[in-house]
Amino acid sequence: MLSTVDLELALDIAESAARAAGALIRRAYRLPRHIEDKGVNDLVTDTDRVSETLIVRLLQTALPTCNIAGEEKGMRPTQPDAPLTWWIDPLDGTTNFVHGVPHFSVSIGAVDPQDNILAGVVYDPLFDECFRAGRGLGATCNGDPVHVSTRSRLSDSLAASGFPTDLRAEGNNTAEWSAFVPHCQGMSRMGSAALDLCYVAMGRFDLYWESGLATWDMLAGVAILQEAGGRVTRYGGEPLNIHQRGELVASNGLVHDEAMGVLASVRREGKGAR
Fold this sequence. Notes:
By secondary structure, this protein is an alpha+beta fold. 33% of the residues lie in helices and 26% in strands.
């Protein structure tokens, strides 16, 4: 595992790469875009690809012994002795970007050879907010420490979630969403999983849940949330597996058990994600 000094250096490099990609995205935001479907409603733009290429180049140049996996091009050649593997989402919130909604991010997270979560950087290029965390180093936003909220009841909480790209699919989160509505003070669907996790980390949201997320969607945000004092599990309380597309529930820790109770009620009725 990297030393603390090395981890801080790696975070500095990842933040620089995220900010560089963010500047590129910011310029592209008001320009015409070429859009393709990777699947049903699963959009990708030229900006996604160019952003990933830039991040990969910057990380490989500064940290040539590390492995890199990106959403658009997959895993680069594996180095068995690599101290870190970086997982990149070059534009988390592509649908928002395509529709001109100013809420998306660059997400870069890292694990060690045993898949322990070590670091995360999430950058919002339009609001110029950079969230980052390293194991044992705490979590920050633009250098200022962040911590989860202290709300202890769902009835006082602002909850967030997301939906799959194919809204017609079975288990599309509508049952879970409906179940939470009468229990929470407010509900939010923002469209960037990485930023949702960061918002829980700094107390803007108290709870976030979603299913079907890929490693690059959640890794950086989970790193930041955990260092901010939050809790992350599967819906039933089982440990999160970052490589398993499945369930994620993230909270300030205080409303976690109550939230899992709501999710369990959906399962008992035979509804919800499978």
